[in-house]
Design a protein that fits this description.
Oligomer: heterodimer
CATH architecture of the largest domain in chain A: 3-Layer(aba) Sandwich
Largest interface: A-B, 30 and 29 residues
Shape of chain B: rod-shaped
Order of helices and strands of chain B: EHHHHEEHEEEHHHEHEEHEEHHEEEE
Strand order of the largest sheet of chain A: 2-1-3-4-5
Helix content of chain B: 40-55%
Radius of gyration of chain A: 18 Å
Largest sheet of chain B: 7 strands, mixed
CATH topology of the largest domain in chain A: Rossmann fold
Shape of chain A: globular
Structural class of chain A: alpha/beta
Helix content of chain A: 40-55%
Structural class of chain B: alpha+beta
Order of helices and strands of chain A: EHEHEHEHEHEEEEHEHHEE
Radius of gyration of chain B: 53 Å
CATH superfamily of the largest domain in chain A: Response regulator
Number of domains of chain B: 3
Strand content of chain A: 15-25%
Chain lengths: 224, 634
Amino acid sequence: MKARILVVDDDEALAEMIGIVLRNDGFDPVFCADGGQALDIFRSSKPDLVLLDLMLPGVDGIEVCRQIRAESDVPIVMLTAKSDTSDVVRGLESGADDYVPKPFKPAELVARVRARLRPGDQKAPETLRIADITIDVAGHTVKRSDERISLTPLEFDLLVALARKPWQVFTRELLLEQVWGYRHAADTRLVNVHVQRLRSKIERDPEAPEVVLTVRGVGYKAGS
Amino acid sequence: MVSATKQVPEPSGPEDAREPGVPAAKAPEHTDALAAELARLPFRARIWRRRGIIVGLRVARLVTIGLRRLLPALRYLGKSLQRRWRRSLQFRTVLTTLMLAVTSFGAVGAYLSNQIANNLFQERLTQAESETRYNVKQVQDTFDGAQVTDQSSVITLVYDTLNAVEGRGSVIQRRYVFEAMPEQTKPRNRWVESRASDQLTVSVIPPELRKAVQESGKDQYWASTVIPVGTEDRPGIAVGNKVTFNGTVYELYLIYDLNTAQQTLDEIQGVLLAGGAVLVLMIGAIAWYVTRNVVSPVSHAALVSEKLAAGQLQERMVVKGEDEVARLGASFNHMAASLQEQITQLATLSQMQQRFVSDVSHELRTPLTTVRMAAEVLYDARHDFDPINKRSAELLYNQVERFQSLLADLLEISRFDAGVAMLDAEPEDILQVIAHVIEGAAPVAAEYGSEIILRAPAEGIVAEMDARRIDRILRNLILNAVEHGEGKPVIVTVAANQSAVGIAVRDQGIGMTPAEAARVFDRFWRADPARARTTGGSGLGLSIAMEDTKLHNGWLQAWGKKGSGANFRLTIPLRQGEEIERSPVQLEPEEIILPGVPQENRMVVVAPGPAVPVSASAASVGQSGAAATPKESS
C-alpha cells in the first residue's frame, strides 16, 4: 500500500512539483493550499506523513502543526524558507519531527520522508528503565510509577536509543543517525530541540535533568 | 634734650631689625643673646618654647603611632590627591590659589605684625625715656636739697622719694631698682642701702645695662628685661641713670611693664591671623566657584561627547546664556544633531537595504525550490533526451545549483548585516569538528591531488563554540586551501593555550601578496578576476567566515606571500566572554613542511585516497601536548 502524504503548501507550482517527485517515488500525495483547511483535510485523508510549509496564508504552519499534533502522532516534516535558528526551533517546538530548508533537492526530500516513514522495527517485548522512568518498548508506553507519559514516536525513539545503552554517551551526530536515520550529518539543532521537548515531558525539573543528561562537549546520555 | 637715652646694644642676630636701637657711643661691646631675645617676645617665648617642646614630643609620638596605622590610608589619600591634581583642572586651580594666598598672607602678615610691634615698642620706649629722665631729675633734685641730719630722716626721705617715683606713671606701672654703685672712691653713705620695688632685685637688671650706667657720666641707658609681677614674668624695659646722694653715687633703674603693649600686639596678631585665615578661605571658595563656572561646562561637554561617541546620539549639552560657553554648547549641539541625523539616515538606509535583501532571498527560495526540483527531474531523465536537450538539462541543473549556493551565501550575509545572527555556543571538542571537516574535504582534496595533514594535540580541546559555524569557517578555509594549493599538501595546525584555541590552515600554492591578504575577507573579492569562477564559490565564503568568527569574539587572519602560499589562522576564545590574549599558533609560517619529512609531533594524515585519519608518527604520541606551532616543529 502506498504511503499517503499530505502536502500543505500555498505555492501551487512547488506543491505540484513535490507531488510529481513523491508520485515518482511511489507515494500518494494529497494537497492543501490553505492553513485553515489543513486540519479538515488531515482528518479526511488520514495521511501517513505531513509535509508542512511554515509560511501559510490564514493559519500559519506553526499553528497547523500544533493542531495536528494535538490529535495525532503522525510524523510532521516542515518545509521552511527561513533557516533562522529561532524559526526552526519554533517549528520543532510546536511538534514537528524534522524540517527541510528550502531550496531542497528531490532526493533530500524523499530521504527525509522515508526516514520518518520507516516502519517501526518489530520490537521485541522489552522493558527499559532510566532513573524512575519505565519504558515498555513493544507497547510504546512510558511511565513514571503508574502515571503514563505521552510521547511522540520520535521522542519515544530518542528515549529508547538513550535507554538501550545507558553506559554510552551519544554525540548529536550519532543520535541523528540512529533516531532520525540520517547517514550524513544534518543540523544538530534538531537533536537539541527534541531533547528539550523530551525533557519537558519526562523530567520532574527540566532545568535539572535526571533522565537525559548533558555531557558537556560531547552530547547526551541516559541518567542512572 | 642734650643727653639722649642710649640703648644697650643688642647682640647681632636675625631679629636686629626689630630693635629700634640708637646705638650709644658708649655702649658696651659685650652683649648677651638671651637678654636680647627676651627684649622682643620676652617671656612668653620661653614658656611657649618649653610648652612647644613638650607638646611637640607628644604630637610626634602620636603621629608616629598614627602614621604606622594610617600609612596605607595616607598613601591612598596621597595617590587620590595626586590623581585629582592630574585629572581635575578645578582642583589644581583651587589648590594653587590657596597656596599662593597663604604664602602672600603669611608674608604680608609677618611684615604688618613686625611693624606694629616696632611701633608699639618705640612708643613705650620714648615714653619710658622721658618719664625716666623727668623722674631721675626729680629724685636728684630732692636728694640735692635734702638735709642730712639723722639716719632715720634720711632713710625716710630717700624711701619716700623713691616710693613717689613708683606708681606715679600714668599708663605704665613703673618700678625701680636703687642700687649703690660698687667700688666708689668716696666713703659710702651708710644710711642709705640699696633698695627696690616689691619682688624686684638688682638681678633683673641686665649686667650690660649696669655696666653701661656705671661707666657713663650722666647718660641714660635702657635695656629690655623680664620682671616678675605676681606669679608671672612679664616683658619690661629698664632705663637706668645715676643719682648722687650725699656724695654717694647710686644707680637708679626705672622699670616699665610692657605687658599691655604685648597684649595689644597679641590681639593684633590674633586678628591678623584670623582675618588672614578667613580671607584665604574666601579666596579658596571664590577660586572654586569661578573655576567651577568655567570648568563645569567643559567637563559637561566632555561627558556629553563621550556619550555621543558611545552611541547615545540623543545626548545634548545644556545651553544657558550667550557667553562663550553657551556658544560652544550651541555649536556642539548643532554638530551632534547633524551627526545624529546622518547616522540615523544611514542606519535606516542600511536597514532597508538589509531588509530588502533578506526579503528577496526569502521570496526567491520557494520558486528556486521548484526550479531546482524540476531541473533535477530533467537531469535524472537526461539519458532519454537528444544531445541538445541533454546538454541543456545538464547546464540548467549545474547553474541552478550554483545559483542556489550564491543565494544561500547572500542570505547568510544579509542575516549578519541585519544583526539577527545568533551564536548558539556550547562546549564541544574542536578536534572532532576539524576531523569531520577534513573528512568531508577529502574527496575534493583527492580531486586536486593534494593531501590534508593535521597536526594537533592528542587530547581534545573543548571550546565554547557554535559547532555549525566553526564547521562552516573551517570547511571554507580548508577547501580554499585545497583549491589554491596546486596539489601540494595542506597543513592544518591546532593548538590551545589557557584562553584560546588556534587553528592555522596553510597551503603552499601560488600564495598572495600582503595587500591581497588584507582584502581577502572583502565581499565578492577575488585575487584574480580572470581565474576565479571556475572554482565556484560565491565570493562570500570568507566574508561569512569572518562574520562567524566575529560572532565568537575570535580572530580570523590571513597571511600570504607570492609564490609560497598562504596561511589562514582562526583563533577563538575557549570560553565565550573572555578575551583572547594571544593566538596559540603562529600566523606567519617560518618554514615549509614537505610531506614525507618526519615530524616530531603527532600527525593525522588524510591521504587523498581513504578518508580515514591515520596516525602517522607513533614515535612521539607522548609529547603531543607540546603541539605544533610551525616554529616548534622544525
